[in-house]
């Protein structure tokens, strides 16, 4: 049975949110044939039930009577008999993850180019944009919470795997910023959507692929490695691969993005008496996190104290749409400048929270944490970790300061009164990261935990 095959496979996928917990049942909510052939392409929405709660996922299934060696790694299993309506029928089919089959993924481009409706799935493109469906795709290696298909060096199509009813904030934000011709974004071209619970829900976004570019995480690590490999008395400023000028430029780009978001979407202020509620929100998250991850418990007192300082603030806090999950892996250095990706907010948070106005300092805090991550992640398991730790601290300090300077020079606002808020946001981000790492990369958990020291 297809549902049983999928239930056995889905739990092992990188993008599956419920890893480590048994799946009670998997049911197929919709099953649309996009291409009736051999190979054939089906689009499925499935509901996965775990501990009484339900999550929905999007799957693209390829169907072939014979599976070539090049697609064996994508095999889900064999099922049959199955007959496509007006298409081939075989007693046995190989069912596999069609994201890996360029003979099938071109249907996504073709359907977007034609603004086609396939059953309940709608494909759209932005007015005035031409889509060339002749380019072959491959799955991007860095598959994380979603699956990205790169078509030649022209497009990247991000398939959202876990679905939350509503327009994805990434699509909402990049289309609004592109309409303003804002810099520092990847141009959007098209999208896929479906109605879930009566709400139009984004399934995928097609964007410009930034070829000849590197993400900020890789660039930062090159710089950190360079410093680690330098002579003991060489400082972060003196090392050949110094990153500070790039960190400052990134700060400037961040300020510009915040300005564009404040112009394209509503803005507001949180009055001092309401700031208490912000602190309560941080506390609630801490409570949930400490219940899940025991290593956090010894830091709760210090964290509570930092959140309490936010409650004592007497100035109002400016709020607007923000990125929401800002880190070095979300920014790409092209040949000309930094481009910001993935305005989706923190995966796992409710959509309303991800779309809510917040202080732009949350993004600043996210990137500051990322400099800490880059400085420390090579230390885990390193034979000379103790000797290198001062260098890691120095690298983080230098690049955090450069980023903040660039942000302020670029027009971003950080006042002395913001210090308590920025610190609370940074600590709260580290709490989120402790959970993220304990669920996804347990060997990395020491990185965010180090922030509390
Ligand atoms: N428009 C793009 N051009 C080039 N590479 C991209 C683009 N969008 C994403 N990437 C690459 O994909 C990686 C993951 O993208 P991201 O949008 O952050 O997905 P996820 O939400 O799954 O982490 C990025 O770090 C980057 O390397
Ligand atoms: O990129 P995503 O939207 O999937 O974000 C999630 O995964 C990120 C890891 O890939 C995680 O980021 C954390 O690790 C990064 C290094 O890999 C580091 O640069 C970030 O500062 C750190 O938060 C992110 O938190 C999570 O939401």
TrEMBL record:
Domain of life of the native organism: Bacteria
Source taxonomy: Bacteria, Bacillati, Actinomycetota, Actinomycetes, Streptosporangiales
Protein name: Maltokinase
Keyword Transcription: no
Species of origin: Nonomuraea glycinis
Short name of any one Pfam family annotated for the protein: Mak_N_cap
UniProt domain Maltokinase N-terminal cap: residue ranges: 9-101
Similarity-based family: Belongs to the aminoglycoside phosphotransferase family.
Pathway stated in the Swiss-Prot or TrEMBL entry: Glycan biosynthesis; glycogen biosynthesis
Residue stretches making up the Aminoglycoside phosphotransferase domain: 143-375
Top-level EC class as recorded in UniProt: transferase
Molecular function via GO: ATP binding; kinase activity
Subunit and interaction comment: Monomer.
Entry keyword set: ATP-binding, Carbohydrate metabolism, Glycogen biosynthesis, Glycogen metabolism, Kinase, Nucleotide-binding, Transferase
Record-level GO BP terms: glycogen biosynthetic process
EC code: 2.7.1.175
Gene3D superfamilies named in the record: 3.90.1200.10
Keyword Transferase included in the entry's annotation: yes
SUPFAM superfamilies assigned to the protein according to its UniProt record, in alphabetical order: Protein kinase-like (PK-like)
Catalytic activity, reaction form: D-maltose + ATP = alpha-maltose 1-phosphate + ADP + H(+)
């Amino acid at each position: 049975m297809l549902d049983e095959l999928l239930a056995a496979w889905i739990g092992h996928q990188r993008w599956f949110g419920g890893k480590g917990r048994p799946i009670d049942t998997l049911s197929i909510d919709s099953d649309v044939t996009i291409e009736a052939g051999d190979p054939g392409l089906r689009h499925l929405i499935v509901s996965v039930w775990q501990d009484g709660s339900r999550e929905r996922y999007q799957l693209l299934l390829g169907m072939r009577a014979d599976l070539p060696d090049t697609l064996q790694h994508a095999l889900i299993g064999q099922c049959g008999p199955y007959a496509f309506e007006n298409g081939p029928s075989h007693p046995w089919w190989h069912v596999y993850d069609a994201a890996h089959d360029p003979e099938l993924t071109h249907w996504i481009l073709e359907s977007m180019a034609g603004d086609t409706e396939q059953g309940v799935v709608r494909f759209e493109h932005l007015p005035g944009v031409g889509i060339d469906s002749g380019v072959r795709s491959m799955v991007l290696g860095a598959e994380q919470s979603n699956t990205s298909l790169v078509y030649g060096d022209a497009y990247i199509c991000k398939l959202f795997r876990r679905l939350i009813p509503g327009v994805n904030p990434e699509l909402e934000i990049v289309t609004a910023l592109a309409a303003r011709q804002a810099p520092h974004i990847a141009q959007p071209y098209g999208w896929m959507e479906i109605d879930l619970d009566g709400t139009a829900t984004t399934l995928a976004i097609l964007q410009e692929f930034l070829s000849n570019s590197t993400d900020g995480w890789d660039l930062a690590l090159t710089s950190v490695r360079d410093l680690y490999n330098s002579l003991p008395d060489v400082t972060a400023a003196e090392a050949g691969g110094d990153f500070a000028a790039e960190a400052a430029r990134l700060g400037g780009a961040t300020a510009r993005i915040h300005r564009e978001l404040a112009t394209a979407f509503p803005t507001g202020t949180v009055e001092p008496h309401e700031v208490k509620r912000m602190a309560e929100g941080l506390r609630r998250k801490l409570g949930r996190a400490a219940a899940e991850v025991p290593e956090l418990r010894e830091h709760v007192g210090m964290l509570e104290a930092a959140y309490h300082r936010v409650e004592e603030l007497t100035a109002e806090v400016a709020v607007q749409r923000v990125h929401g999950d800002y880190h070095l892996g979300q920014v790409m250095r092209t040949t000309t400048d930094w481009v910001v990706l993935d305005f989706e907010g923190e995966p796992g948070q409710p959509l309303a929270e991800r779309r809510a106005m917040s202080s732009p300092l949350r993004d600043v805090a996210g990137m500051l944490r990322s400099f800490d991550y880059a400085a420390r992640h090579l230390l885990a398991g390193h034979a000379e970790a103790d000797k290198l730790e001062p260098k890691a601290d120095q690298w983080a300090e230098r690049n955090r300061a450069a980023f903040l300077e660039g942000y302020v020079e670029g027009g971003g606002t950080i006042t002395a009164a913001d210090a308590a808020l920025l610190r609370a946001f940074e600590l709260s981000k580290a709490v989120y990261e402790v959970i993220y790492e304990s669920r996804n990369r347990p060997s990395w958990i020491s990185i965010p935990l180090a922030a509390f020291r």
